[in-house]
């Protein structure tokens, strides 16, 4: 069973443990916007609670995806472990302006599965061989529209000072240092407002139905 232990930061020897019932309470149509907030919290604040929630939500879905692509259950669990550790280590590479969180994560899973198949000198299944550069289908377009709408609604409900920092960081694409220089606010204040804003966004998006 896939598990997550966050007593220490994830590393080579980390054992992942997910609670049996899972902490994520996100309806299926909220997957994309919630994943974005979790991933931003991990990327910018190394937020262990957000990582744990993301693990609880993603692990069974990633495992199902990998099994559908031909992996044995035991191998699927191994791949999911690798993928989640990669997400923790490489979260800094995620850019919400360039890719949906779901697409970024599933591409990591796809690449890891292909690597293993090629090492075993087996043919790559059609489900994995599909060109990732192909045009998105209607469901992907709808999911992106939902993510954009939900995030805009949640951002609009933030406190003005938090909303300003979030918009400058994730819409204006400014670094924390650049925001500090432009606003005259101490760097610590900028980081604190962004952290609090992200925390509020997580709660707002979980509450959407």
UniProtKB/TrEMBL annotation:
Residues 151-201 form the RNA polymerase sigma factor 70 region 4 type domain. It comes from the Bacteria. CDD domains: Sigma70_r4. Keywords: DNA-binding, Sigma factor, Transcription, Transcription regulation. Residues 58-122 form the RNA polymerase sigma-70 region domain. The keyword Transmembrane helix does not apply. Pfam families: Sigma70_r2 (PF04542), Sigma70_r4_2 (PF08281). Belongs to the sigma-70 factor family. ECF subfamily. PANTHER family: RNA POLYMERASE ECF-TYPE SIGMA FACTO (PTHR43133), RNA POLYMERASE SIGMA FACTOR SIGZ (PTHR43133:SF62). This is RNA polymerase sigma factor. The lineage of its organism: Bacteria, Pseudomonadati, Pseudomonadota, Alphaproteobacteria, Rhodobacterales.
């Amino acid at each position: 069973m896939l598990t997550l232990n966050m007593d220490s930061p994830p590393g080579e020897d980390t054992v992942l443990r997910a609670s049996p019932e899972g902490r994520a309470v996100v309806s299926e149509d909220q997957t994309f916007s919630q994943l974005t907030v979790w991933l931003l919290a991990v990327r910018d604040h190394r937020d262990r609670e957000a990582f744990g929630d993301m693990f609880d939500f993603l692990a069974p879905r990633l495992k199902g995806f990998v099994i559908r692509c031909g992996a044995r259950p035991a191998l699927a669990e191994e791949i999911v472990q690798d993928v989640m550790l990669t997400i923790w280590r490489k979260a800094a590479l995620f850019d919400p302006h360039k890719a949906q969180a779901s697409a970024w994560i599933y591409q990591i899973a796809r690449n890891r599965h292909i690597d293993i198949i090629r090492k075993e000198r087996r043919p790559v299944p059609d489900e994995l061989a599909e060109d990732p550069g192909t045009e998105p289908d209607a469901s992907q377009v709808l999911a992106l529209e939902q993510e954009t709408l939900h995030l805009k609604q949640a951002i609009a409900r933030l406190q003005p000072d938090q909303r300003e920092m979030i918009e400058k960081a994730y819409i204006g694409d400014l670094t924390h240092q650049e925001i500090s220089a432009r606003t005259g606010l101490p760097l610590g204040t900028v980081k604190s407002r962004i952290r609090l804003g992200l925390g509020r966004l997580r709660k707002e998006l979980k509450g959407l139905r």
